[in-house]
Fold this protein.
Amino acid sequence: MASAQAVPVDEGANLEYAKHIRYWRRNLKTFLPHHYTGNDSMRMTLAFFILSAEDILGDLDGALSPEEREGFIEWVYACQLPNGCFRPSPATDFGSSRNDDNAIWDPAHVPGTFFALLILILLGDDLAQVKRPEILAWLTKLQRPDGSFGETIGVNGRIEGGNDTRFGYMVTGIRWILRGTVEGPIDGIPDINVDQFVRCIQASETYDGGISEAAFHEAHAGFASCAINALYLVDRLPLAAHQTPDNKIRGLTNLPQTLHWLAARQTLTIDEEDAFDTRGDETDSAATCHDAHSFVKLKSYPSATGEQAVRTQPTSHFELQWIGVNGRCNKIGDTCYAYWVGAPLKVLGHLDLLDKKAIRRWLLDKTQHIVGGFGKVPGAPPDIYHAYLGLVILAIFGEAGLKNVDAALCISNRAIRHLESLAWRKSIVG
Amino acid sequence: MARKYYHDDPKWSDVAPLPQEDYGHHPLAAIAYTEEYSEAMGYLRACMAANEHSERVLELTEHIIGLNPAHYTVWLYRAQTLSALNSDLRAEIAWLNPTALQHLKNYQIWHHRQTIIDKLGSPDGEPAFITAMLDQDSKNYHVWSYRQWLVKRFDMFDGRELKWTEGMIDDDVRNNSAWNHRWFLVFGGTVGEGEKVERDVVVRELEYAQDAIRKAPQNQSPWNYLRGVIRRSGLPLSALQHFALEFADPENRPDDDVFSSHALDLLADIYAAAGKTELAVKALDLLATRYDPIRKTYWEYRKGLLEAEGRKEETGAASAAAVETAAA
């Protein structure tokens, strides 16, 4: 992917590099506080965020001794299961008690495998110990007749986990890492049904141009991002006008409407108070309708409060200094959605539909935390998930001092280049 | 909640816990577990490894779910245990209700609930429980998704469900989840994909959305809904022109006489389709500069598309003229 276009220099807002580095080094080197217990079964995901943040900040080599790097690689490979896939955490490892009868409680896991591979790539491993054929064959077993993918295979071979686009995204990510975009069997290893997967995404497109977790569910930026990134990873995004039609089924049946929906995620509702104002209030004014800004007149005033709100509306564009990004229509801005909306726009070649400068200001002035990292909303403490996605979207925007990232795989282009340089992969992808 | 331990519990004296293996000196994302969680997990691993399905396993999984509701296999293991013991599934639901209210953002719990209700074969009590959940968070994605499953599973595509949804929209006309649920009820149930929608349904839906827009013209949810209905029923977008002009009229009314940015957006599309490029550009300019400057770059992109389209047409017309001249 082409490198991002840099955002204009903005004197007012700064990325506090030193604090972010301190925040991430602490996550890397010390125990995470016990309130991460709810993430115990997705430690591989947290591990990826931590190491990748260090990579994007340019601190990976400085932070890791060669021994630590080797130790982390060993830890990831220790999560590898006999069938070649990965568990997402040691929490389900039965050690020497593991057998065929209890293996379903310690199953191969889609996010576990996806993030394990990404970590190995960014730590510079050559993936020589990764069992490519086994993992690729397993992917085909995770696909349901409707084209969607599950998370694990459970009792009686049942495909477990939601049928939303998150797992489809990670499956296509694993596939891209291990075999690029080449379709069909390779060396006798079957491929997933790409056409059926694309149909499944088409069915999740919503009436407003967004994408949801399944047909008729509400449009949601997280699912939209996973779907669009997945289409990119299987090379099934809509063709541009200058490209020759290839008669393949392609996703996004209404690209202009999807762009409209993605652009509409920008919002001035950026704190709880704004969000509270928009609930249950019958007026549309500067104070109550932050998505429209302040310039819409009312025909009449349903209440005295409503009238007051309109009469006192701000008349300047002052508020436009900060623009948040939400995940659904009429919701509050949230750091992570800057990535979930920015990444698909980047992949579609339309990042410029976002007001990068004002979103950057919102992240840096409002959700960047004084100890480093980013919180979900202004004033929220930082957490690994929001801190990582906040950093990634700034990197996608071209923030000086951050590594360029691949928006779809959410990892530095440096790491991608390492993967692409590996001989086994070159022999498949060319 | 009081802490719970197993090592001194006679009920568990026959079990040797399996401690967590953390693979050498460089574990990644290691968590400072509480002693309580560490110990409970050790007993869980031992039980899972032995494929034990018993009453005490139900207690143990309940305990762990309380500490880590996102543990994906503990739910599957619990479901399997319930099934092996032929447990009372109503009791399971009675336990799940407060647990779900405690963990509003949890995802696995809904999958579990779905499995149980599916087996019970009845939606009794579910709508009331959903209402309690939505009282906490009226836009909770998992709850709305579950509600859709319930409606499909028990064929609840009737007037009552539509009425309930209208109540949710009355409570908060900006609740996009409720709007989406209405769409699902009207277009996702008895009407098949691509099947023609009856005329009176189309009229009813257009009127419903229009009434909601008149109530709060800047609310995007019903505007999206309106466009969706038009597209789904195969009507031209221009069918909405008359309505949109109530809220903005770049042709005949002063520029400050605008009641909704979404009306301008819609009119820009209607004008563009009718070849009235200048008016479309004007609507987009008003959006970019006055009524929706948050999306300035987006409106300018749309303008750029119109201008490119215009140039293409001019070139087309010019070459057609050249061909005609040559022919003459």
Summary: The CA atoms of residues 242 and 349 of chain A lie 14 Å apart. Chain A touches chain B through 97 residues (CB under 8 Å). The mean pLDDT of chain A is 89.
